[in-house]
From TrEMBL:
UniProt cross-references to SUPFAM superfamilies, sorted A to Z: Bacterial exopeptidase dimerisation domain, Zn-dependent exopeptidases
NCBIfam families per record: amidohydrolases
Top-level division of the source organism's lineage: Eukaryota
Name of this protein: Peptidase M20 domain-containing protein 2
Record-stated family: Belongs to the peptidase M20A family.
Molecular function, one GO term: dipeptidase activity
Peptidase M20 dimerisation domain: residues covered: 192-268
Pfam families documented for this protein: M20_dimer, Peptidase_M20
Keywords recorded for this protein, A-Z: Hydrolase
Length: 416
């Protein structure tokens, strides 16, 4: 393997480089925050990031292999032909991927994806700098992953083969706490429509078929189901269309539902079919017809322990943050992410970091905080820790072996 430099010296080089690009990253973050774009429509953010990366030496920027993902990209830095690589052969070359997100919620960047964008960029460029300074045989990739908020851009990129040649992957997510072992639930988004028949609600209600009764029946059935599910399961939804007027029997209703579980196999094989049965109860009770649609399912995040142990150690060494007991960290769900799907195809980590905001994400308070100098500074502090995970993977064959062995234990999804 490539020789390891003194870790304090490596940290010093990494932090100095991060400081040198901090102003550039800050401007990108602020621009993305000021121009929020929802999933698969991130034209401004995509152009801003890719033009910035294209100006960096030895960085090649290409579109996703999924040509429909026009706001996705893959940036590559290839140092595999270094002297260290020549000495140790191609087997010594490791490919490490970082992920950036930049889509917004309807309320704006209340999930801090402007910070996720620059964390990925910063880690990618800093790791490239370390590879050059210490002459390490490595290929680095930065994945620009659109549509994380529900559309599953990473899933599309996985299916297209963008992650096919990656050995390890990592990213950071902002929050109000530092977590090296976060719990992200598997999730399935479900749209349901009921079709009935209009009638005058007072003069001839018997001539109608009530689509509102169908969706209400379904929601009541789900409410009863909640008594019989695991404490880690979640079912929640909204009725987006409930009818046109109170004196008309509604002929059409629509709802959106999210079903989540701690593991994707339990979600698909147990919980989701039971939720579908609740929706079908609305059909049985009213005589309506029903149409359902789903988006790609998000897998649960399977944290690679050897990789995240390095990150946790760096948090303690570099900024004095002790993340504590892994079991306690896993006790609180952080929601769902399509990074979970990446975790099932390559050893990965998806660490949460404290931005200094006490409010939870998806709030007006977090939206305002995501553009502050404090949030920026804390983001780059964690970037410096994440980069040391990449450096360790580049230089420590034992870590690579342990990370791969841990990944081999991850149960692979069943194919239908």
């Amino acid at each position: 393997m490539a020789a390891r430099a003194d870790l304090d010296a490596v940290r010093a080089v990494a932090n100095a480089f991060i400081a040198s690009i901090s102003a550039e990253l800050r401007e990108i973050s602020l621009q993305i925050h000021a121009h929020p774009e929802e999933g698969f429509s991130e034209v401004f953010a995509h152009r801003l990031i890719t033009e910035y990366l294209a100006r960096k030496p030895q960085v090649q920027v290409a579109p996703s292999k999924d040509k429909a993902l026009v706001t996705a990209f893959v940036a590559t830095y290839d140092h595999s032909a270094s002297r260290a690589g020549a000495n140790h052969g191609q087997d010594a070359v490791t490919t490490i991927g970082f992920c950036s997100e930049y889509d917004a919620l309807p309320m704006g960047h209340a999930c801090g994806h402007n910070l996720i964008a620059i964390s990925g960029i910063g880690a990618f460029l800093t790791a490239a700098h370390l590879a050059e300074i210490f002459d390490l045989p490595v290929r680095l990739k930065l994945f620009g992953t659109p549509g994380e908020e529900g559309q599953g851009g990473k899933i599309n990129m996985i299916n297209a083969g963008d992650f096919a040649d990656v050995d390890f992957a990592m990213m950071l997510h902002p929050g109000n706490i530092d977590l090296a072992h976060p719990t992200y639930l598997a999730a399935q988004h479900l749209d349901v429509e009921y079709f009935g028949k209009e009638a005058h609600a007072a003069a001839s209600p018997w001539d109608g078929i009530n689509a509102l009764d169908a969706v209400v029946t379904a929601f009541n059935a789900i409410a009863h189901l909640r008594q019989q599910i695991l404490p880690t399961d979640r079912i929640h939804g909204v009725i987006t269309h409930g009818g046109a007027a109170p004196n008309i029997i509604p002929a059409y209703t629509r709802a959106e539902i999210m079903v989540r579980s701690e593991r994707q196999d339990h979600l698909q094989e147990n919980l989701f079919p039971r939720v579908l049965a609740c929706l079908e109860s609305g059909v049985a009770a009213t005589g309506c017809t029903m149409k359902t649609g789903t988006t790609p399912a998000y897998a649960d995040v399977v944290t690679n322990v050897p990789m995240t142990d390095v990150y946790a150690h760096e948090l303690l060494v570099q900024i004095g943050v002790d993340v504590g007991d892994p079991h306690e960290q896993r006790s609180v769900s952080r929601g769902s992410t399509d990074m979970g799907n990446v975790c099932y195809v390559v050893p990965s980590i998806h660490n949460v970091f404290d931005t200094g905001c006490k409010a939870e994400i998806h709030s007006e308070e977090f939206l305002a905080h995501a553009k502050t100098q404090e949030a920026h500074d804390k983001t780059l502090q964690r970037v410096a820790c994440l980069v040391m995970v990449a450096y360790s993977l580049m230089t420590d064959a034992d870590l690579r072996s342990r990370a791969r062995a841990e990944f081999a234990k991850v149960p692979k999804p069943k194919t239908k």
